[in-house]
Amino acid sequence: MIGSMGFLRHRSDARRESYEGRRRGSINREVMRARRRAEKDYPAGNGSGPAIRYVRAMRNEAAKPIGDHLREWRQRRRLSQLALAMDAEISTKHLSFLETGRAQPSREMVLNLAGRLQVPLRERNVLLVAAGYAPIFPERSLDDPALQAARRAVDLVLAGHEPYPALAVDRHWTLVAQNRAVAPLLAGVEAALLAPPVNVLRVSLHPRGLAPQIANLPEWRAHLLERLRAQGELTADPVLDRLMQELAGYPAPAVSTKPPAQDYAGVVVPLRLVTPAGALSFFSTTTVFGTPVDITLSELALESFFPADAITAEALRQMKP
Q1: Which end of the chain is more exposed for a tag (fewer CB within 10 A), N or C?
Q2: Under CATH, which number does the domain 145-318 receive?
């Protein structure tokens, strides 16, 4: 009996090793095919362009089991196995097997669960690679010919918003584009903060950036930090975590006990800037692409600022470039 159990255990271990070997081989084949597609679609000359670096990053992530990824994203979304299984229309047992590695998900199952968990496109590629499949969501530069229509749309929105300021940022709040109404508002910002790559949040809250010109800095700072915290929690991006630590480390302004000059009925958090043209008040909106399948577009956001009062609107019309 003992010998029989030892034989079964040995056979089970052999099967597991065989499966892991096939899985690693499948991952390597899938990722190599993705690399060849990237080299064909986005030639980088020496093989070190952004598309190739991204594929290499996917390969590095393949070492982590797909079950670990799924469990971490489920826990990040504060969902029980039951809640996620019901939403994905699978059994709790099957989800448990996927998380523990006792079952291997199909490509469709990975995408189904990633969609239910609202995993960003960049991280969906990571999940696919970890499960042994090639990444399917491309990441192109905004200047890539394939994104020409999207780039025109961005430029059109920014230009059409003048004389009010508007800008486009990527997932790390790096400035991608801006309209002509932005520059006059940055006149007092230290030149080093405006050297590319420009981080919009750093410019906003840095002591040598816009911070000294923001009349309601405690309120605006709390708004930006909370927004960044929520974004970091949603995306699990370590770069955002580091940015959060940096911004939170800037000198915190004293909280004013004076009531705001105008509370906007508690609807929005205004940005109040003290400028040579006078005190200007803005509220902002965020625009994103509705159904992107490209990583760059999925991570692009357009921040548009509108005058919150008639005085600001008139001042901006007078400052029209």
Answers
A1: N
A2: 3.30.450.180
